Input
Amino acid sequence: MTQALQKKLVTFDEFVVKYPDNTGKHYELHDGVVVEMAQPTGDHEDVVGFLLEKIAVEYVRNGLHYSIPKTALVKPLEGESAYSPDILIINRPNLVNEPLWKKESTVSQAASIPLVIEVVSTNWRDDYYKKLADYEAIGIPEYWIVDYAACGARKFIGNPKQPTISIYQLIDGEYQVTQFRGSDRIQSLAFSELNLTAEQVFQAGYVGEN
Output
């Protein structure tokens, strides 16, 4: 669950000066509203860690000049928002064109972001609605929503609800979605040789499933 912290709207510049604070908490900026992010569960972190490891192996093996920053922000070009994705793949050669990278570790250009991944928790509406629209507007080529606990609405993950990986790929400026469940092998344009099933991702928290 997310929690708005104030009624007065703040700018992105004000946000990056004040946050992160010394509380150890995690924040995003949603249309000028500072939002405190929920403490992630162990299962959530297991899924994130599993995907980080598998994807890092792929880009290293293919000689891609990518990296995965710990706390970098994605800022839409319009409005006062800034998101901290669960996994953000950075195309390092384009960082010279990012005016906010050096001081604020923030990216806003599609050329810098080959892939972004959100692992769903109780704030699923942000992932399926707001972030989906803003990532599409930026032009990020590929966006994964990993709903391992089937938190999202039935219109997104089916009825009955079931764990689903939704991969949105930008085609003619709009996201088109393909979904993966169970033994389906994940199909990614960013990492075409990635050999993972949806179930392997969902079971990442269990010893022996990796």
